[in-house]
Specification:
Layout (H helix, E strand, L loop, with lengths): L2 E5 L1 H8 L5 H12 L3 E5 L1 H12 L4 H11 L3 E3 L4 H8 L6 H12 L4 E3 L3 H6 L6 E2 L1 H8 L4
Parallel strand pairs: 1-2, 1-4, 2-3, 4-5
Length: 142
């Protein structure tokens, strides 16, 4: 079974804005494109990524980027019960908690983020990796 990974906003921003982590984040996206892994994110993450992407590209370019991205990234959402779990979790940053618990509820295998605080708060059942850590550890094969 292919690994199911959650892509946090900072990972998608690395891809869309070609930031410092672009190479590693793009390698994970490439593994999703070729079907080696399955990629997921939430509407809230897309909202944040769209805001910053539109600051660097035209509206039409942003739509093209998102259209291509959504060919290989599945959108999952947070349920009421999941939001309550996140609010009462040990994760101090509510935005991170909502994304993390959404991934947990959907039984994903890993959470890809460059957020070091979130990594420290992660549960063993859903580890948080940077893109580079995940690639070094799991090296998806074509």
């Amino acid at each position: 079974m292919a690994s199911k990974l959650f892509l946090d906003a900072n990972i998608l921003l690395d891809i869309t804005l070609q930031r410092q982590g672009f190479v590693q984040a793009s390698a994970i996206l490439a593994a999703g494109i070729n079907g080696t892994i399955k990629l997921y994110t939430t509407p809230a993450v897309l909202h944040v990524v769209a805001y910053y992407t539109k600051r660097h590209y035209s509206e039409e370019q942003t739509k093209q980027i998102f259209s291509a991205l959504l060919n290989d990234v599945t959108i999952i959402d947070c349920y009421h019960e999941t939001a309550l779990l996140a609010i009462h979790s040990g994760i101090n940053d509510l935005e991170d908690a909502l994304q993390y618990y959404t991934a947990l509820t959907h039984r994903l295998h890993a959470f890809i983020s460059s957020d070091k605080k979130l990594k420290k708060m992660a549960l063993p059942v859903l580890p948080v990796y940077t893109a580079e850590e995940w690639l070094v550890t799991f090296e998806p094969k074509d």
